[in-house]
Write a structure and sequence with these properties.
Elements lengths: L5 H9 L8 H9 L29 H14 L10 H25 L17 H14 L1 E5 L6 H12 L5 E6 L4 H6 L20 H15 L4 E6 L9 H5 L4 E6 L11 E2 L5 H12 L5 H13 L4 H14 L10 H6 L9 H10 L7 E2 H7 L5 H9 L4 E3 L4 E3 L2 H11 L7 H10 L8 H4 L5 H8 L8 H13 L3 H19 L4 H15 L4 H16 L6 H17 L3 H20 L4 H21 L3 H18 L3 H17 L3 H18 L5 H16 L1
Parallel strand pairs: 1-4, 1-5, 2-3, 3-4
Antiparallel strand pairs: 6-8, 7-8
Helix pairs in contact: 1-4, 3-4, 5-6, 10-11, 10-12, 14-17, 21-23, 22-23, 23-24, 24-25, 25-26, 25-27, 26-27, 27-28, 27-29, 28-29, 29-30, 30-31
Length: about 700
């Protein structure tokens, strides 16, 4: 539905009242479509507001009805349905005053809160880009700064905020962690007074909340507000068009050329040589001789004038009293170790290795320090003061620039073993990930892929860590990444350990989980069969793993119509779990998995249309859930199964209650695009339609 502002339309319409122009003609005139539409009487229809329509610019049902009546009276074909124009003008004026007062009240109720830019480097040599940015924002209201990572886009944006802040009533500087949905939904990044994300009911949907906040910002801002969106690298984001319609000034930094969306941008290129010398001298804090200038420029040319390299190299020279004059043979060494990474102590290098596992958005300082628990906090601050680690005081957030991260990965070559303490605590922190509310889960969405981007796929001594983090990929809904990663992990396990090995079985099982949770049952069944095949012939079997792979292998058998064999397999798994529980060996965990076995047994019977038997197994799963005192994400599956079975057996009242409870739990524990949640929402809508 198109964006429209009835208040502005009424205001412009009323301007023609004293000019003697008829209401119909003045409406078409200010709409600027009189020359396009020959049938002027049809032009008003797009401005009618339908009952229940959300896009009515804050009008109540009564106000929307008044607006519709005025329009229909003005454009009615028959005189009998036309009211006198003087009366209509008066009605229109009264409606305008009502809506205007409501908007003023909204402006007092909602207010975009200031969020200042973090401290930035000096924008040396960027005078042209600053002038272009100011000119573009003045003319067009939106400016894109684009270029490669580390070239100086954020520096220019921060410098613009510093120099032009006085032109604005409100400045909001926000780093785009992932997409615009997450950016606008995060109240710590973009905060509107009297608006808060509520992780319950409809408000638990981040997309809904982000769009609501966007609409509110559109009402309460104008060109006296500056919104800076830094590090926004997806110009295909579905909310970009709506963001670009905001009436405030919008400054965006991105690695993508905005020409791909039909927009002009200001490209931030490498500095000119004179400016590079200025930059080096500024951070080196000494005047360069003629020979030193030539040597500095020769080094700059080896890394193509990259701003961040130059800045950190100059700092390194200043701190360690390294003369900038170097021989040509040393240039490669300087480029490779431009940050002096190998000169840091072992503890400092370990901190940097851990930091290289962070996403671009970084991590809260207190959390990072907790995960680096055996390190001295002073060392972290020392690395920050040296310019290696970036620190955002406003969010108390620590991060690495992508260029620095790449240098750490290439020079220090971190491994799973190097980061074992950091990652062990991280895995422990996510031990109950499955039953975390979706809001809490989203905090990890950028972290897990960043770890796998940084580290090799397998390391024999750290397979528990690798599998622990891999298991989170499908739970986070990172389907594409999870597919490619789990299959590559399986292939590497086959090559390293053979096709019959516990780790090979675990890798196959994780690949199956990805497909199963996307409802791709055929692919999932094949991977479950591979997992059982990799474990079946082992001489020494762990009871937990054997029961798990047997249970999941039943899905392969069910898919091929081997229901009785599937049930026998599940009974074997049940027997193992019950024996372990009776022996009090990790009883709580075993009870959780016994509950899953009962869910599997329920679904085998449902496939076979044995509904009464299925309900018996479903109730067994429900009883364990009560004993464990956690509904959680697993409770969604139990309640949904019960709802389907109750409906099949004709108990529609209890079926509705179960479906309602399943829906509420799904909203809490699953992302809005999670397959199981979508299935439940579809069933709910179907039920509402029938009732």
């Amino acid at each position: 539905m198109q964006k429209r502002d009835c208040l502005n339309r009424i205001e412009n319409w009323l301007k023609y009242r004293g000019a003697g122009i008829g209401m119909k003609e003045s409406f078409e005139k200010q709409a600027q479509i009189a020359d396009i539409l020959k049938e002027m009487s049809l032009s008003y229809t797009k401005w009618l507001i339908l009952p229940g329509e959300e896009n009515r610019e804050g009008m109540s049902e009564e106000e929307a009805g008044e607006w519709n009546e005025i329009l229909m009276s003005v454009f009615a074909r028959l005189p009998a349905y036309q009211e006198k124009e003087d009366a209509l003008w008066d009605r229109l004026a009264r409606l305008f005053e009502t809506l205007l007062q409501k908007r003023k009240n909204d402006g007092q109720k909602f207010r975009l809160l200031e969020r200042s830019a973090p401290e930035g480097e000096e924008a040396l040599g960027r005078e042209t880009e600053l002038e272009q940015t100011a000119e573009t924002l003045q003319k067009e209201g939106t400016a894109f700064l684009y270029g490669i990572g580390g070239i100086g886009k954020s520096t220019v944006a921060k410098a613009y905020v510093r120099e032009y802040a006085a032109q604005y009533d409100t400045v909001v500087y926000a780093v785009c962690n992932r997409g615009l949905r997450e950016l606008f939904a995060d109240d710590s990044l973009i905060c509107v007074q009297n608006m808060i994300y509520t992780p319950q009911g409809k408000r638990a949907e981040l997309g809904w909340y982000a769009r609501r906040k966007l609409k509110t910002i559109a009402k309460i801002t104008d060109e006296r507000t500056l919104l800076v969106i830094d590090n926004f690298d997806n110009l295909r984001d579905p909310l970009l068009l709506e963001t670009l319609r905001l009436p405030c000034h919008l400054l965006v930094t991105t690695r993508m050329n905005p020409a791909c969306i039909g927009r002009n941008g200001i490209e931030v290129l490498a500095l000119k040589e004179n400016d590079l010398l200025r930059l080096f001298s500024f951070y080196y804090r000494e005047t360069l001789s003629g020979k030193e200038k030539e040597d500095v420029l020769s080094v700059f040319r080896t890394f193509r004038g990259h701003t961040l390299y130059g800045m950190l190299w100059a700092r390194e020279c200043a701190v360690k009293k390294i003369p900038p004059s170097v021989r040509a043979a040393e240039l490669f060494r300087i480029k490779k170790h431009i940050f002096g990474l190998l000169n840091f102590s072992k503890k400092e290098q370990e901190i940097l290795k851990n930091a290289s596992l962070l996403p671009v958005t970084g991590m809260e300082m207190k959390r990072f320090l907790r995960l680096c628990r055996h390190m001295e906090e002073s060392l972290v601050w020392k690395l920050k003061d040296g310019g290696i680690l970036e620190y955002d005081a406003g969010r108390n957030n620590i991060s690495l620039h992508p260029v620095v991260r790449r240098e750490i990965l290439e020079t220090l070559n971190p491994s799973w073993s190097d980061c074992r303490v950091f990652l062990s605590d991280f895995v422990q922190e996510t031990s109950n990930f499955w039953n975390m509310p979706v809001r809490e889960k989203m905090k990890y969405q950028a972290y897990i892929p960043a770890v796998f981007d940084a580290l090799p796929l397998i390391e024999e001594s750290c397979m528990d860590l690798i599998f622990g983090l891999t298991d989170l990929l499908w739970q986070l809904g990172l389907w594409s990444f999870a597919r490619s990663h789990t299959q590559a992990l399986y292939q590497q396990c086959c090559a390293a350990f053979g096709r019959s090995h516990p780790d090979t079985a675990r890798a196959a099982h994780l690949a199956a989980s990805v497909y199963h949770n996307q409802n791709e049952r055929k692919c999932a069944a094949l991977w479950y069969e591979r997992a059982w095949a990799a474990y079946r012939d082992l001489e020494e079997k762990d009871p937990f793993s054997e029961a798990l792979y047997r249970m999941k292998y039943s899905r392969y058998l069910t898919l091929h119509g081997k229901y009785e064999e599937a049930k026998e397999t599940l009974l074997c798994a049940e027997e193992i779990y019950l024996a372990e529980i009776a022996a009090d060996r990790n009883a709580r965990v075993m009870s959780c998995w016994l509950q899953n076995a009962y869910i599997e047994h329920t679904r085998v019977c449902m496939e076979e249309q044995e509904n009464e038997e299925a309900l018996v197994w479903c109730q067994k799963a429900k009883e364990i859930a009560k004993e464990l005192k956690e509904g959680g994400a697993t409770g969604v599956y139990i309640l949904y199964d019960e709802a389907v079975l109750r409906e099949r057996l004709g108990d529609f009242s209890r079926a509705g209650k179960c479906l309602s409870m399943a829906r509420k739990l799904a909203e809490k524990y699953f992302d809005e695009n999670y397959p199981e949640r979508l299935k439940i929402e579809q069933a709910w809508k179907k039920r509402e339609g029938e009732t």
